[in-house]
Amino acid sequence: MNTTNLRLVTSAKPTLSTAPPDPDLYQAMCIEAYQPSQAARGFSQLTIDNGAATLERFLTACGRPAWEVTRDDIDRVVGELATVGMATSTRRGYLSTFKGFFTFLCARKVVEIEAMFGMRLADPVDEFNASRHVGTDSPHVLPPPTPQRLDTFFAFLRDRIATARVFGTAARDYALFRTLYHAGLRSEEAVMLDVADLYFDRGPFGKIHVRFGKAANGSGPRPRWVPMLDGLDLILKWYLADVRGKLADGAPLFPDQSGDRLHRGSVRNRLAQLLDLEDAAASERFSPHAIRRACATHNYERGMDLVAIQQLLGHWQVGTTMGYVRPSATFIEDAYRRAVSATLTALEDGQR
């Protein structure tokens, strides 16, 4: 064998590329991986697709991958959206979509991102640039008022009717806030109700025709029918028979002293005044929106289906409803007791 042309190769080890992957390509892969997790949480495919498009537009405006976005970027982009006249709710949707994706990166991709790009993830959405409703599941988010707290408040309003200087206004306040709670209405939906929107003969409980439900995605008002649950039909029948005629004439169900519609800001201010009169402690105060969240939470805790609550509140996406529900500290124990009780009852019935 002729070996004159052979030579020793000092290193046959292949050279590995240490260059990081393309950030845009990796981000696209992360967005694609994010979608199955949303499906697992119950979001529809339409919601997932719309969210992906919203996320991509927001990241394009930021001009950098999600893991490099800073608080200054968030301030700048949200400010630009406001400057071009984008509605507050739409800006909130952009920010909420980004925050959801960033939370996914922190939970699933933090090690990869630090290894490939040398970036440690830090949430750029803070208490200063977060729109209202864009939050986290951290303990500082106040839970809605408990059923016991609302029972106490409604008892105060009911007792006040007999002693208030103006009977009609005090009775209107009682009916208004009971309606907000039992029907889960937004303040702006409640003040737009007319007397003619009450249909006591519709369905087993009677229904309220909410003609001016909150718009979504640039649409006009989205009407819906809301049942009068938990005896709300009896409260509203009493209100129409004994109270409404003592207020100024007009179409509005809950008018001001001149007969015009209350402003939604007046509802918030009125609630604050009533809590002052009740001498409520700071920890026992709440807003009209908290009453709406209480409606969602309390109905969920007693077994109402989440989709039914979504329809009750008029949410476009069930994911929004999930954000409203904040079960009590004993929710798991209470659910366990109900399950065990139901099982024991079934066993006892089977032995008879």
From TrEMBL:
Annotated PROSITE patterns: CB, TYR_RECOMBINASE
Keywords in alphabetical order: DNA integration, DNA recombination, DNA-binding, Plasmid
Chain segments carrying region Disordered: 1-20
Keyword Electron transport: no
Domain Tyr recombinase, chain residue ranges per copy: 143-337
MF (Gene Ontology): DNA binding
Boundaries of every Core-binding (CB) domain copy: 21-106
Pfam families: Phage_int_SAM_1, Phage_integrase
GO biological process: DNA integration; DNA recombination
Keyword DNA-binding assigned: yes
Compositional bias per record (Polar residues), positions renumbered to this chain: 1-18
InterPro entries recorded: CB, DNA_brk_join_enz, Integrase-like_cat_sf, Integrase_catalytic, Integrase_recombinase_N, Integrase_SAM-like_N, Tyrosine_recombinase_XerCD
CDD domains in alphabetical order: DNA_BRE_C (cd00397)
Record-stated family: Belongs to the 'phage' integrase family.
Name of this chain's protein: Phage integrase family protein
